[in-house]
């Protein structure tokens, strides 16, 4: 593919996507332009042929797909500054900003643009992100172009825009929820006799295995839980104790609280 890509504000998440683009050979390195105030942080990519600059305007001029990885509080200002550079006949705009609607993005740039919102998560760094995407277009070729861009960092789910905030909570914030659960498992493992290193290894692989079971078998969690909860066994006793102490309830409340925070 010879599409030219710009990543505006190439911070941690932008770097993960950049690595995915390079590894998947989505386009040649010289077709990618990335911007950041501190260009020194991107020097390794410059050596690979990626164009590294502080000039957002030139990045937009030299791109077909413009991926904006800026914080929500300044994305609209930056887009307004670049408004004259957008060409609806050429450009596809992709925003990674939480809580900024397609309508707001269009008003700041151009309402005639093909505009996408995408929400990857930090598993992008190991090419295991779940990226939820919505768009103001149903053009098959445009949708496929954007899908292929995110293919290099994991799996993709197209959703309605009204669900993007919920996707942020479940898919992006969700990484932190799972990690906190895993950390608690490690602490429990230490208490029953393992070193931190060994407990971490066991927990990491156990969680990985549980995830693969559900993904590859397309199974419901309860179906797999039933297979390890024998009558009067230690598993069901432990699960019931967790539920008596509000395990599922606390997790659901946390998800809803995060969602309400975004909604406000």
TrEMBL record:
Its EC number is 1.5.1.2. Gene3D superfamilies: NAD(P)-binding Rossmann-like Domain, ProC C-terminal domain-like. Residues 161-262 form the Pyrroline-5-carboxylate reductase dimerisation domain. InterPro entries: 6-PGluconate_DH-like_C_sf, NAD(P)-bd_dom_sf, P5C_Rdtase_cat_N, P5CR_dimer, Pyrroline-COOH_reductase. One of its GO terms (biological process) is L-proline biosynthetic process. It catalyses: L-proline + NADP(+) = (S)-1-pyrroline-5-carboxylate + NADPH + 2 H(+); L-proline + NAD(+) = (S)-1-pyrroline-5-carboxylate + NADH + 2 H(+). Pathway: Amino-acid biosynthesis; L-proline biosynthesis; L-proline from L-glutamate 5-semialdehyde: step 1/1. Pfam families: F420_oxidored, P5CR_dimer. It is an enzyme of class 1 (oxidoreductase). Its main location: cytoplasm. Keywords: Amino-acid biosynthesis, Cytoplasm, NADP, Oxidoreductase, Proline biosynthesis. NADPH binds at residue 56. NADP(+) binds at residues 8-13, 69-72. It is found in: Cytoplasm. Catalyzes the reduction of 1-pyrroline-5-carboxylate (PCA) to L-proline. NCBIfam families: proC. This is Pyrroline-5-carboxylate reductase.
């Amino acid at each position: 593919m010879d599409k030219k890509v710009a990543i505006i504000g190439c911070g941690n998440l932008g770097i993960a996507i950049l690595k995915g683009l390079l590894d998947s050979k989505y386009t040649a390195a010289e077709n990618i332009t990335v911007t950041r105030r501190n260009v020194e942080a991107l020097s390794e990519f410059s050596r690979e042929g990626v164009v590294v600059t502080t000039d957002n305007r030139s990045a937009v001029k030299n791109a077909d797909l413009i991926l904006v990885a800026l914080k929500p509080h300044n994305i609209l200002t930056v887009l307004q500054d670049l408004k004259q550079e957008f060409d609806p006949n050429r450009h596809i705009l992709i925003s990674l900003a939480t809580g900024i609607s397609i309508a707001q993005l269009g008003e700041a740039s151009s309402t005639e643009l093909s505009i996408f919102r995408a929400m990857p998560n930090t598993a992008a760094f190991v090419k295991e992100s779940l990226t939820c995407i919505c768009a103001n277009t149903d053009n098959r070729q445009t949708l496929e172009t954007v899908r292929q861009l995110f293919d290099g960092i994991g799996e993709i789910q197209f959703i309605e825009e009204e669900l993007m905030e919920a996707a942020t909570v479940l898919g992006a914030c969700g990484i932190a929820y799972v990690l906190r659960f895993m950390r608690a498992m490690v602490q429990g493992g230490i208490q029953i006799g393992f070193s931190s290193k060994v407990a971490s290894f066991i927990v990491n692989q156990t969680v990985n295995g549980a995830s693969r079971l559900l993904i590859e078998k397309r199974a419901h969690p309860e179906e797999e839980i039933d297979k390890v909860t024998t009558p009067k066994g230690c598993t069901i006793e432990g699960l019931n104790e967790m539920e008596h102490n509000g395990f599922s309830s606390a997790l659901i409340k946390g998800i809803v609280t995060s969602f309400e925070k975004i909604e406000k």
